[in-house]
Amino acid sequence: ACRPAPTLSREREGASALPPSAGAPPQSCSPRLRAAARCPVVDAGGRSVPFAALYGERKAIVVFVRNFLCYTCKEYVEDLAKVPKAFLQEANVRLIVIGQSSYHHIKTFCSLTGYTHEMYVDPQREIYKTFGMKRGENNNVSVRSPHVKSNVLLGSIKSVWRAMTGPAFDFQGDPAQQGGTLILGPGNEVHFLHLDKNRLDHVPINTVLQLAGVKPVNFTNKPQIIDI
C-alpha cells in the first residue's frame, strides 16, 4: 500500500525546518498523479506537453500558483527567480511554475518577476482539480508567507491595476483558485505535497529546496558569499 507523501505541519514557519514526516518513503503509486500525468500543460510558445514529461526523467519542484495577477504569487515567484540555475543543476532538479491562464501571459509574467526557470500553464485547471487544490480562501488558517512583502490592501490594488492596464481586463485565471507545491519524480513518485489553504499559505522556498536536495538561497538583502 502507498504511504502518503510528506506534507508540512502547520508549525512550519521556520524556513529551514524539515517536516516531521520528511523521512517517509516517496509515494510511488498515487492515483492522483497517474490521472494528472495524462493532462496537458502548455509552454510560452503554445506547445502542449503531458504533465508527466516535466518529472519523468528528473526530480522536479512544481509550484502551482493562484493566478498571474495575484500579488502574493508575483512576490513568491520573484523569490523563486532568485534560485540560481547552478544550484538546480548541481542537484539535478527542475524548478517549474504552473499557472492557470492562457499561455500568452507566460512571457509577460516572467518578465515582470525576473523568473527565468521553466513555466507552463494548465488553462482548464485539470491538474489543479485532479490534485484537489481548493477554490476559495480559508482565512481561519493563520499563516504568513515569508516571501510576500505587500499587505492585503496595497497588494490587491496592485493586482487590480495590472489587470486594468493590460490589453484587456483579465484576471488571468480563476481568482478563487488556490495553488500548491509538489516534489515529483523521477518517474511516478510523489516526494512532497502541499495544498495551499489561502493566498498566503506558501511553503517557504528554502524548505522546498532542502526537501529536494537543493542548496538553500539567501533571500535577505545581505550579500551572499559563495565559495568558488
UniProtKB/TrEMBL annotation:
Residue stretches of biased makeup (Low complexity): 15-26
Pfam families: AhpC-TSA_2 (PF13911)
Organism phylogeny: Eukaryota, Metazoa, Chordata, Craniata, Vertebrata
Record region (Disordered): 1-29
Record InterPro entries: PXL2A/B/C, Thioredoxin-like_sf
Protein name (record): Peroxiredoxin like 2C
SUPFAM superfamilies: Thioredoxin-like (SSF52833)
Superkingdom field: Eukaryota
